[in-house]
Design a protein that fits this description.
Blueprint (H helix, E strand, L loop, with lengths): L11 H10 L2 E7 L5 E7 L1 E5 L2 E9 L3 H8 L2 E13 L12 E15 L2 H15 L13 H8 L2 E16 L6 H11 L4 H15 L1
Helix pairs in contact: 5-6
């Protein structure tokens, strides 16, 4: 991950809120043959004092899940909208074009949890994403069905060791170029429009 000072959040809290707001992450590890593995899954962030933890669940008997048993060192990647930015939108057009995006990399140690914790994680996940009166909340499901489902999955918790981020939003451009980038991105696809919205908010605040 790039480590460039002007592509950082002004407030560290922004990074935490970004992770909470974009919970569908990529979890990466390495198996016993030193081959990288990855899976896409929701990870819920929990703050306990001055420490951060991620919780999630994965299917058993999968290559990536086996790797997490074998090597507890993992990397979780959180990201959101992104968009190409043409240098033709800058005041000085004779430079390289680029890509605007936001991403957070979290390294940590993963440990598998027991069945009681698995049930708690599943409950927390459905409460996070279902409506308050949803019939699909874990507590609303048939307990026998839940127990059967739990046989095929395992819950885990990651103790966060380090958090890195890049919020690359044309902060290195002059005011005229910055506004022109926003104008062009507003005419793009949904990802471009979202980046334009974020850049506009940054400009205001």
């Amino acid at each position: 991950m790039y480590n460039i000072p002007y592509f950082k959040a002004e407030n560290p809290r922004e990074v935490i809120e970004f992770m909470k707001g974009n919970p569908f992450a990529v979890l990466c590890g390495v198996n016993e043959k030193d081959i990288p593995v990855a899976t896409h899954l929701p990870l819920l962030l929990e703050e306990r004092g001055d420490k951060l933890f991620l919780q999630g669940h994965s299917m058993k008997k999968q290559g990536h899940t086996d790797a997490y048993y074998q090597n507890p060192n993992v990397l979780a990647i959180f990201s959101d909208a992104h968009s190409y930015v043409s240098a033709s939108w800058y005041r000085n057009t004779k430079v390289a074009s680029t890509w605007n995006y936001q991403a957070v990399h979290v390294t940590g140690h993963l440990r598998m949890l027991d069945d009681a914790a698995l049930h708690a994680v599943l409950t927390r996940v459905t409460r996070a994403f279902e409506a308050a009166d949803s019939p699909s909340l874990v507590e609303q499901l048939d307990p026998e069905y839940v127990q059967q489902m739990m046989k095929a999955i395992v819950a885990f918790e990651i103790e966060v060791i380090a958090v890195e981020h890049v919020f690359k939003l044309s902060q290195n451009r002059d005011a005229h170029s910055y506004q022109n980038i926003i104008t062009h991105l507003r005419e793009g696809d949904p990802g471009a429009q979202e980046i334009a919205r974020i850049m506009e908010e940054k400009k205001k605040g």
